[in-house]
Amino acid sequence: MITFDQTKGTFHLSNGQISYVMQIEDGGNLAHIYYGKQLADYSGGYRYPRVDRSFSPNPPDSTDRLFSLDTLMMEFPGNGFGDFREAAYDIRHNDGSHVTHFVYQEHQIMQGKPSIAGLPQTHGEAEAIETLCLSLVDETAKVELKLFYSIFADTAAIVRSSQLINHHEAQVSIEQFASQSLDFPNRPLDLIHLHGAWARERQITREPIQIGTKRLDSKRGASSHQQNPFSIVADPQTTENQGECFGFSLLYSGSHETIIQRDPYQQTRVVMGINSYHFNWQLNHGEVFQAPEVVIAYSDQGLNQLSHVYHNFYDQHLIRGTYKNQERPILINNWEATYFDFNEDKLEQLVSEAKDLGIELFVLDDGWFGKREDDRTSLGDWVENEGKLASGLAGFANKVKDKGMQFGLWLEPEMMSGDSDLYRAHPEWRLEVPNRQPSLSRSQYVLDFSRQDVRDHIYRQLQDLFDRVPIDYIKWDMNRNMSDVYSLLLAPAQQGEVAHRYMLGLYDFLETLTTTYPHILFEGCSGGGGRFDAGFLYYMPQIWTSDNTDAIARLKIQYGTSLVYPPSTMGSHVSAVPNHQTHRNTDLSIRGHVAMSGLLGYELDLTQLSTEEKAVITEQISFYKKHRRLLQFGTFVRLLSPFDGNDTAWMYISKDQSEALVFYFRVLAEASAPFVTLKLQGLAAEKQYESDYGVIGGDELMQMGIYIDPHLAGDYVSQMIHFKVIE
Ligand code: DGJ
Question: Locate the Glycosyl hydrolase family 36 N-terminal domain: which residues (predicted)?
Answer without folding.
Answer: 28-284
